[in-house]
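Illustration 12: RBR-type E3 ubiquitin transferase.
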Amino acid sequence: MSEEILILESIFPDFISTDQSNESNLKLEIPVQLGESSRTVIVRTEETSAEVPLTLSLTSLPPLLLHIVLSATYPSQDPPDVSIRSSWLPPPLVHRLHGLLTAMWHPGDGVLYDWVEFIRGGEFLTSLNLSLPSGVLEIRHPAPQRLGPLFTSYDDSARSATFSQASYSCAVCLTSVKGAKCMQLACSHVFCRSCLYDYWSFSIAEGSVEKLGCPDPACVKVGRESGEEEIARVVSDQEVRRWRWLKEKIMFEKDPSLVHCPMVFCQHPVPKPPESQSDSGADRLRICPVCSYSFCGFCKRTWHGAVQDCSISHNEAVVAEYLAFEEESRERELMELRFGRVILRKLVAKYQEDQLNKKWLTDSTMACPGCTLNIEKSQGCNHMTCSRCKMHFCYRCGFKLTPSDPYAHFSDRKTSCYQKLFDYVSEDREWQPF
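Figure caption equivalent — predicted structure in token form:
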């Protein structure tokens, strides 16, 4: 009996624990190793339940605890007295497993090693009809949503423990390193943490983060990038923040339609809304995903609605910049991506129309010196009376005239309007503006 226990302790030192005062009492904590990732389905016990089964991919299951008492007549006459406890195996199956273990004993033969292998290798799952012919492991439980996290948590810890105990060859420094000092990336390539830190921290410091990922040549060739979770496990928090900032900067440069939040404390890039293909004013609405500030993506001011236009000065500045570039140029394409081609074309048309109107007002009208109302003279003398404020003024030079003697201005030799009360061209007999 003592020899059998010594053999178990030498083969499975992590599984067995004995009572120091009584060697015939021992405990076996045996994990269930499924080998490669096995598809496990957890189904609710009630047949009428409409709940969707929980499907997991596992390499191991939580251990079964065997409390064994070896009698003085073991193994010649009596089998071991065993009690089984499990956190996931239902009581009826525990009872059936007890019967299977008892049936494995034959008089005169030790059975403890066979029990360990029977459970550790998962052979008992087939005997309990839990392993389907398709290879899927089906477990029935009253609360699958509670059992699922237990399985995944244990499986993750078991994988981590297995990984830490093994040794791996780092493809960067070409040395064999214990798994505890290594890291396995999502692509399954393994590198020592020291090499990964040197590679990633240098790339972040230099700003080369566009394809920061696995150093393996195969992954570099396809441009595989590492996620923030992987990077945060290797570099410092400050370097993660710089990496995140550089990624946002690159994203902003690649997509000119992105607009930085105008709030000074935020400055987060805000993408164009999905419905931005239309030419409605609502396309200009931006809502920052970080601070929830709503603003106009065109003028960067607080959102003023889809109907109201942006400030005239801002629109003119944007159009002037747009027209300064050559047609079909890359700069114009970038502005069209950022503000929208339809909106820019409308602004250009409105800007050109406004410029023509301003030119016409300058050439064909005179602003009242009292209320600045633009007045056009079709015929008659240059003495004008504003219809709004009743101001008397000269249509030629805009000088304010005295209401009691408005024509004195045209008789004064010192003015440029001397004897020019009328603008008359004798050649075609038409009144002409000066």
